Every structure is written in C-alpha cells, then in structure tokens.
C-alpha cells in the first residue's frame, strides 16, 4: 500500500504521484553537482524494503537525463535485511537499477560495502573509483536520535551527497490528512487492488489495513524532523555551526532554505504533494568541491 501511495496519483488532490515529485527534486539536486557528468556517481538507497518508490524515481531521473543528453546515474537498493526476492525482478526492468546483496547498516561506516563508500572518503573500505549519494525515502524518521546522529556522521564521512525525503511533517494539517487516510483507503483499495483478496479482506471485512495505515501515518508525523533539527545533526557530526545563506517562500506553504556547514551545503525543500495539507519535506546535502 505504501508503494502504491508513492507511485500512484490521486485524482483532484494531487498534480502528480509523490514519487515523480521526489524524482524531479532529485534530478535537480543531481544536476547541481559540478562533476556529475565527469565522475562515476552511484545513488545508494538505504532502508529500501521491497523497493518502494526508488524504481520509479530512478526511471524518471534517468529519462530526464537522457532527454538532456546526459549519462545515466546508477541506483542501488540496500537494506539491513536485503529483500532479494523483491529486488531481483525490479532490477530486470532497468539497466540502471540494481542492489547490494549483503546487509547494509547505515550507522556502521567501517563495515559498509565498498559501493556505499565514496572514493573521497578517508575510510579504509574506500576501494572504488566512484562517488556516492545516500538516499532515504520515507525512512529517516524511523531512527531514534542516537541512531540518526550516527547515520548523519556516517554519511558525511563516506558520501558526497545526501537526500532525505519525507512526505509528512509535524503540522496540524498533516495530522488531519493522515487521520483522513483511514477513510481514503476505503475508497482506493477496490481500485488499486481489485484482485488482491488480502487487501480487500483487510480493508472491507476486517478494516485492519486502514487503521494501521492511519496510525502509522500519525506516528510518522510525530517522528519527522524539521530542517533545523536535521541540520543540527549535521552540525554535531561536523563539529561546527551552520551559516544560514537564504530562506525563501516559493508558494503557499512551500519553502527553500539553504545553509553552509564546513565543506557541505544543505538545502531544505518543502513542496505540496497532496492538497491541501500534504507537503514533501526534503533535506539535501552536497559536499562542496
């Protein structure tokens, strides 16, 4: 159900599927790397689960790059518990989507597989000739503060870029939208999963699925960090305070914030994905050359 909510567009209240909105943002983010077309970059998706929105994001990003005459960027799925049964079929649909078969612990840089670690890292397992960008799709909020701090320190040590994408925040409007998801699933399930007895049973006979989805959404809202809170994790990892460069309102409720901390530039992006209260919140980090 979560993958469907990422990859399918709701009529009237969404202009595009959230995954495509995220893909456009990531495409712009990648283009901002000055050596993106001269160096070999990999986008490593952490906490991939069964794949989530990443296959559609990869497809959308690389189609846009192909239209612009640029080389494709390989994406790699990864997880602490690799779901190879789900990933292998996904990888057959794109030459630029593959996976890391061994477990990947985002908090453990010393034992990370070589593909995760950029050639610019000082870690001893930096053995490749590539650069890496670490991606977290709707997963960073799952981590407690201590683990999130370790992940941030790991990323800023081993990667050249970071993209954290969340579809929720701690606003009253988002709480109302998540509460309404209980009723929304009664409308959608029959159209999205008409041939799935499990989905139909757990929605219309014993409505476990709508309750779990709504509850999970509300808890996710509570756990989602603001740009400032995530930036504080980066400041602690880098050992210095960030300097706010700009903060601009780009639409109703939409905003772009830019900060510099050490060798890194961080950008916070807030964009509407579901009318009237659903905003995508992205935390983007780029190591400056």
From TrEMBL:
Keyword set, alphabetical order: Membrane, Transmembrane, Transmembrane helix
Stretches that traverse the bilayer: 172-195, 201-222
Source organism, top-level taxon: Eukaryota
Protein name per the record: S-adenosyl-L-methionine-dependent methyltransferase
